[in-house]
Amino acid sequence: MRNLFTILALALLFSCQNAAQNNEKQQKVINATPVEVPLENGKAKAYFASGCFWCVEAVYESIKGVDEVINGYSGGYTDNPTYEASNTGRTGHAEAVEVIYDPKVVSFSTLVDAYFASQNPTQVNGQGPDKGSQYRSIIFYQNEEQKNIILEKKQALAKQLDAKIAAEVYPFQKFWVAEDYHQNYERLHPNNGYIRNVSIPRLKRFQAQFPKELLKENH
């Protein structure tokens, strides 16, 4: 019995040490200097985390000026995260999307508006049925201008709802592209149970309240 208590005590000690290390690593990510992604062929990139990336991908691909949305992982402290590793909640990463857009057609500010309009902004560590730190809401900024836009909109929404807004605000560091089978998931798997019962209804709710002139037709 004494040996069992010794083992449990050591396990708890190492668990606490790991948690402390992880928190320290996560804090470094939060305090880091943002990385600014240069325009490529006139197109810009923005990064958002808001629950399951299948849902978020569909939302942003319905917006005019958005060329492509890539699913992946961001916001954490481990290299080369995988879907399985991210789901443990131990990588620090959240499921995220890379939005490739034409800044002459749609602004970063509008993309942030779409972000808040497409989710429950007060839900902590998840969206809908997807719960855990890997599904938490994060908006990534690449410079002070973007950071100010995010903070102003977050503050205005908090005042409007008279509630705390769950979205975290992180300096962008790196985006890790998810496995191939996660890309274009809603379009390729329209009859999937999750897509039909969670993803598509979330997209429809967003489209119903977002300005029609900002949305692609028949999408």
UniProtKB/TrEMBL annotation:
It is an enzyme of class 1 (oxidoreductase). The keyword Oxidoreductase applies. Keywords: Oxidoreductase, Signal. GO terms for molecular function: L-methionine:thioredoxin-disulfide S-oxidoreductase activity; peptide-methionine (S)-S-oxide reductase activity. Residues 45-194 form the Peptide methionine sulphoxide reductase MsrA domain. Residues 1-20 form the signal peptide. It comes from the Bacteria. Its EC number is 1.8.4.11. It catalyses: L-methionyl-[protein] + [thioredoxin]-disulfide + H2O = L-methionyl-(S)-S-oxide-[protein] + [thioredoxin]-dithiol; [thioredoxin]-disulfide + L-methionine + H2O = L-methionine (S)-S-oxide + [thioredoxin]-dithiol. The active site is at residue 52. The keyword Mitochondrion does not apply. Has an important function as a repair enzyme for proteins that have been inactivated by oxidation. Catalyzes the reversible oxidation-reduction of methionine sulfoxide in proteins to methionine. NCBIfam families: msrA (TIGR00401). Belongs to the MsrA Met sulfoxide reductase family. This is Peptide methionine sulfoxide reductase MsrA.
